[in-house]
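job 3f2a | input accepted
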Amino acid sequence: MKFVALAVTLVLFALLMFMAKKKMNFGTRTIVAAILGIIVGFIFKGNTEYVKVFGSIYANLLFAIVIPLLFTSIVSTVVSLESIEKMKKIGTKTIGILSLHNVLGSLVGLILGVAFKIGQGSSLTLTADAKAKEVPT
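job 3f2a | predicted structure (137 res):
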């Protein structure tokens, strides 16, 4: 069954290559690939060991691209600024927006936690031989 999953995956890769040759939109190909991947994963549940390699390679390539892309975009933005005042203004806005997101996220988490009474009714008991350890400085 593992080899069948691999064969089906390779056929789907060929289909995606055919779609690329027909000049289909990249977004469309990405959505089609995601849907086909979900279907293959659902059909061959538990028998995707050989197919998992493709997903791991894809995820690792994405991780390898993100950091240089982020660094390049930051350097490009800083270089394109004409004055220090613009950089201060952008930096202040960025810090303000990120702080606002953190505060709003915390509030939403607290409100939902209280509203749904998360943790109510649970009891954690320690065994008699459990000892607290000191946290190193």
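job 3f2a | Residues 84-115 form the longest helix (32 residues).
job 3f2a | closed
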